[in-house]
Amino acid sequence: MTEEQSSTENAATQPESAPSPVEPTADAPAADTQAQAAPTPQPEAAPAEAAPKKPRARKQSNAKKTRTVELTLTVTGTADGEWQADLLHAGKRVVQGLPVAAAAVSKAAAELHQDISETIEDVINQARQQHEAKLAELEAEVERVRKALAELEG
Description:
Blueprint: H1 3-13, H2 30-37, H3 41-64, E1 71-77, E2 83-89, E3 92-100, H4 102-112, H5 114-153
Helix pairs in contact: 1-2, 4-5
């Protein structure tokens, strides 16, 4: 193959708008011309592959526009019915040990989900029963103290 034939074939395989590789000189051997012609399809393939990726990237970027906020709310309760809340925002503690009323915890749980509400209501009911038992003991103690006081006065 002569240099002219290589140049003609090289020009025929490249689109007119694409920049041509270094033009072979009259002194360059035909093997160098073929080596220069070989990389030509690779640059053509790269723009063809890049074009479909751009629309895909746009589709993905639309999903990334949705901003998520990570908040972790931990509500803990004791058997006595005392509740407290801790709040973490992006790994940083915002609130720690904030006292919360049992009624507020019950109401919030009811708003979230029935399964959550049932579990929390069970815990609150157990605490209520313990407080009622303690109240009954204290009322009995108050009654004994009143009787003892009445005997001392009378």
